[in-house]
Design goal:
heterodimer; A: about 475 residues; mainly alpha; two-stranded antiparallel sheet; about 55% helix; globular; B: about 425 residues; alpha/beta; Alkaline Phosphatase, subunit A; nine-stranded mixed beta sheet; three-stranded antiparallel beta sheet; about 35% helix
Chain lengths: ~475, ~425
């Protein structure tokens, strides 16, 4: 007897969807098919506002403490209504929930990419109350234009407070942001700027102050702005006006459009979506579009996914700990609801990510967490991930406000050949047919021959759990 | 090397259950995974030698990375230097508050918990130390410090090259605590593991431990890259250190803060004597561009005090036997500018100090040639001691016979005199 197979995506379609989502689920497979194919799905995803996203709206309402203005957040913190660390934690939780449940998967992925490039750690004590608005700004531009995003991100009080630009004045310039803007956010060290360029960069950025420790309101101070000619790389500006904002905007646009920035961002995109050492030809093509299109992110991504080299090296990118948890929850069809208690699913999710070595926006330095896979695949991470997978397939943790699938959910109509049962589960969990190695491994693990006919009595819950465990612990699931 | 690659690797799945991992095979696997880069990174293994120290009960090196660029001038204070006080009107440490002084330097009051070790001669420092050339980028400076052989093109760290010089089956000699991510210093061909804590070594088994381990081996047997190698390393390490997975780590003696759990875990790992030769720990948040504070209160005072207090408890925790076998070294990617900025902070600089504690240290004094502060490099303390000279001295004294030129290729260390 043969089973009616669950339909899965063709290998190349699965590759595109896997790289630009947080995990291929049966539901996502249906959406891709309904869109007419992976590339059409991707195109639709590039316009997130055209896609209904009830889950994200729902999740938004679970964490009302985040939704206040920076000033109110600070006041509530001071009054002891809700402490800053609690709001920050909720924000991390909300981010994880959106990544699991949002239908705008490409938007979520790209928001994460830009947040990591223009990184402001959630743990920073000074900037947190502006961090949520910063996130909204990144989301707004994540599939728009990089120059528009940069112009908003660098003078943003969250960035200014984190990298000391919010205290940098003409009499007391602080180099921190002026330097990282060049090194991390735009042209990179190879562009060959000098220490003098760094000082000029910092001088031009003076004026964007914040009323620290009082109201935490952001304002522009013409008194604090340094005036005088600014020269950084090929950028020159007389900078004679005490309102330095137009000059700053011109400078940021110059940096956004600099060929070194195009090259650097193209390389980073290719590392995220292709491989740790992406082909130079591909990077050049992506950089070319970024440059020519005036930093149009959608056009840049189209060049990336339409390039034949994009399809090389499927499953060479390791999932980061967060990607691992999010994908695991997605493919296991874990359902959750508004947390009714402190220890609910979102909190547990965050704790599990931390156990594996990553929390949302938790990276403690301005360079963002590593985009390269090799950083994330240490032996310690492997053991932690295996543990988190087991917690999920047994439904042990997170424990509250969550519904896990019954073990029968994963089984086809029985009786069936055991290797066909494995194949059925593989299609559901991994989004692809079971390979020989997986079939053989699971056969060995359970001591059931592949060709053996099995019924429901042969596969009680405690036999299905090790099957799911091995699928999540497999190279297929731990890469994307 | 190709003839060393595990023959099991190419077997088809029907034979996977025979797959066994040994350290030697692991090394071969790493080489295969490294592909074209392997050629230059094999130097270490070609020079593999008889191990002197990795035998159980041997010396241990603990490297604490003070990430963010720690201000060495606030730690080991040039208190007789008028320029120091002129350039730091708000943030200088007053001479009267120093807890120890000689004619040139003094110790920040936050180092008071370590004063007994300083007096006993087991805590010392080297000043005006750093990279061969200034680099004021955090990330590039860290990469240079930890790779310490940029010319080769292979991304291996100096600590990885060091542990690669001896071969012990079934032992992981390099451990990073605090995160599953290991730093560049430990990256390379030799097995190293990053752990949040020792309990990470507990393999998650649902029902049948043997069948589960075999399942993992089988699943990953076809993955010959770094990821697969690390899965095998994980299984092997969990086995060789299984006695530690269930151990209770007592953090109660440690002061609350970022170092408590990592140092408590480090001490337990060392005392358990399972062959760890190098332990790395990160202690970040030194990027004090603004609001560094004064000697009496604020960021630097609190941050340094946590380090000093934690290290004091760490050596107590190690006890007398291990305390003499363990040497602690601090490294930071750069020092800070001599002149404070307008925000009560200090920007990225150059020369810095390193702290040395424990076994073999000639303490109670500040080593190294001191350039003073009248002549600066772009406003920064000059470097008179290459940081590799300090590390080379630690390695050659604590792990005698180590081929230093394999750890720091092309570098000729200068004598510092900081180690007995």
């Amino acid at each position: 007897m043969t089973l009616a197979s669950i339909r899965v995506l063709a290998e190349s379609s699965r590759h595109l969807v896997s790289r630009f989502s947080s995990g291929v689920t049966p539901a996502l497979t249906k959406q891709v098919r309904a869109a007419g194919g992976a590339r059409q799905w991707f195109e639709a995803q590039l316009d997130p506002s055209s896609i209904g996203d009830p889950a994200a709206t729902d999740v938004q309402s679970w964490f009302p403490d985040i939704l206040y203005s920076p000033e109110t957040l600070w006041r509530r913190h001071q009054q002891g209504v809700v402490k800053g660390y609690q709001v920050r934690f909720q924000f991390g939780c909300r981010t994880l929930m959106r990544r699991i449940y949002s239908t705008r998967q490409v938007h979520e992925v790209m928001t994460d990419f830009w947040s990591n490039l223009l990184h402001v750690p959630l743990g920073d004590e000074e900037s947190w109350m502006h961090r949520f608005e910063y996130d909204a700004m990144i989301r707004k531009h994540a599939l728009g234009r990089f120059d528009e995003m940069l112009v908003k991100a660098i003078p943003h009080p969250a960035m200014g407070l984190y990298l000391n630009n919010a205290v940098s004045t003409k009499d007391r310039p602080n180099e921190n942001l002026g330097r990282e803007l060049l090194e991390l956010h735009t042209v990179g060290l190879d562009a060959g700027y000098t220490e003098r360029d760094v000082r000029h960069s910092a001088h031009l950025l003076t004026g964007y102050l914040v009323d620290r420790w009082n109201t935490f309101s952001a304002y522009y101070s013409t008194e604090a702005h340094y005036t005088g000619t600014i020269r950084v790389l090929g950028f020159t500006h007389p900078n004679t006006s005490r309102d330095g904002r137009p000059a700053t905007t011109a400078y940021l646009r110059y940096l956004a459009h600099h060929p070194a920035t195009a090259r650097r961002i193209a390389h980073r995109l290719c590392v995220r979506f292709v491989g740790d050492e992406p082909p130079g030809e591909l990077v050049t093509a992506v950089a070319g579009t970024f440059q020519r299109s005036g930093t149009d992110i959608r056009a840049t991504l189209r060049t990336l996914v339409d390039h034949p080299l994009f399809y090389r090296g499927a499953r060479t990118k390791a999932r980061t700990p967060i990607e691992d948890f999010v994908a695991s929850a997605r493919v296991l069809g874990v359902r959750t609801r508004k947390p009714t208690r402190d220890k609910g699913f979102p909190r547990g999710a965050s704790m599990q990510c931390e156990k594996m070595g990553q929390t949302p926006f938790g990276w403690p330095a301005p360079n963002g967490s590593p985009e390269s896979s090799s950083a994330w695949i240490g032996a310690g991470r492997v053991i932690s991930s295996f543990g988190v997978h087991l917690d999920l397939v047994t439904g042990t943790f997170p424990k509250y406000d969550v519904t896990y699938q019954e073990h029968t959910h994963w089984l086809p109509a029985l009786p069936a050949r055991f290797d066909e049962v494995v194949d059925h589960m593989s299609r559901m969990v991994l989004g692809m047919p079971a390979g020989d190695r997986l079939k053989w491994t699971i056969s060995q693990r359970l001591g059931i021959e592949g060709r053996q006919l099995v019924g429901g009595g042969d596969l009680p819950e405690h036999r299905v759990i090790p099957m799911l465990q091995l699928m999540l612990d497999s190279p297929t699931h731990m890469t994307r | 090397m190709t003839n060393e690659i595990d023959p099991d690797a190419s077997r088809d799945s029907s034979c996977c259950n025979d797959f066994r991992v040994t350290r030697r095979k692991l090394l071969a696997g790493f080489a295969a995974g490294a592909g074209g880069l392997a050629a230059s990174s094999l130097i270490g293994r070609a020079a593999r030698q008889v191990a002197y120290a990795a035998a159980l009960g041997g010396n241990v090196l603990v490297v604490i990375s003070l990430r963010g660029g720690a201000d060495g001038l606030s730690m080991i204070v040039p208190h007789t230097n008028a320029d120091y006080y002129r350039l730091r009107p708000n943030t200088a440490v007053p001479s009267g508050q120093l807890v120890w002084r000689d004619g040139t330097f003094g110790l920040h009051p936050s180092l008071a918990p370590l004063l007994p070790m300083w007096r006993a001669g087991t805590f010392g420092a080297v000043h005006a130390v750093g990279l061969a050339a200034p680099n004021r980028s955090h990330f590039e400076a860290i990469e240079i410090v930890e790779d310490a052989d940029l010319g080769s093109g292979a991304r291996t760290g100096w600590l990885n090259r060091m542990i690669g010089l001896d071969a012990f089956e079934g032992q992981v000699e390099g451990v990073h605590f605090g995160s599953p991510l290991i730093s560049t210093a430990l990256v390379g061909d030799s097995p190293a593991i990053g752990l949040t804590e020792l309990s990470n070594l507990q393999l998650p088994v649902y029902d049948d431990a043997t069948a589960t381990r075999e399942g993992w081996r089988n699943l990953w047997a076809g993955s010959r890259g770094e990821f697969g190698d690390n899965v095998r390393l994980a299984l092997q390490t969990a086995k060789s250190m299984r006695s530690l997975a269930g151990a209770t780590v007592d953090v109660s003696r440690y002061p609350a803060g970022p170092l408590s759990a990592v140092l408590a875990n480090t001490a337990l790992l060392i005392r358990s004597n399972v062959g760890a030769k190098v332990v790395t720990v990160d202690y970040g948040d030194w990027d004090m561009h603004s609001g560094m504070g004064s000697a009496s209160h604020g960021w630097m005072k609190d941050h340094l005090y946590h380090l000093a207090q934690s290290l004091r408890v760490f050596f107590d925790d190690l006890g007398t036997t291990w305390g003499t076998k363990v040497t602690v070294v601090t490294i930071s990617e750069f020092g800070r500018r001599v002149a404070e900025n307008g925000n009560g902070g200090v920007d990225h600089g150059y020369g810095n100090c390193m702290l040395l504690l424990g076994g073999g240290v000639r303490g109670g004094r500040v080593h190294g040639e001191w350039p003073g502060l009248s002549e600066l490099t772009e406003g920064d303390l000059r470097v008179r001691q290459d940081y590799r000279s300090v590390l080379a001295e630690v390695i050659s004294r604590r792990f005698p016979g180590t081929n230093i030129s394999a750890v720091f290729p092309g570098f000729r260390p200068a004598p510092i005199g900081a180690m007995a």
